[in-house]
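Input.
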Amino acid sequence: DVWSADQLRALALVDPEGAVLGEVAGLEIGAAQDRLVVRLPDGREARVPFVVALVPEVDLEGGRVVADLPAGLLDLGV
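Output.
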């Protein structure tokens, strides 16, 4: 599926168990892969590669994006 930044913005980013990790603030289009810009609860921003291996579900009706992230990815500050 192809998603636009407008569709994704303000959706909750949750882990597979449903715990909120942050909020999608935008979408960066990249040559190799796109990245979700995520606003974390502490106000920092993180980038999450927008690939099915890490982001298996986008649920527009449910207002959430499910992300199965490796430990520490959101702490990289990139």
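The CA atoms of residues 44 and 77 lie 8 Å apart.
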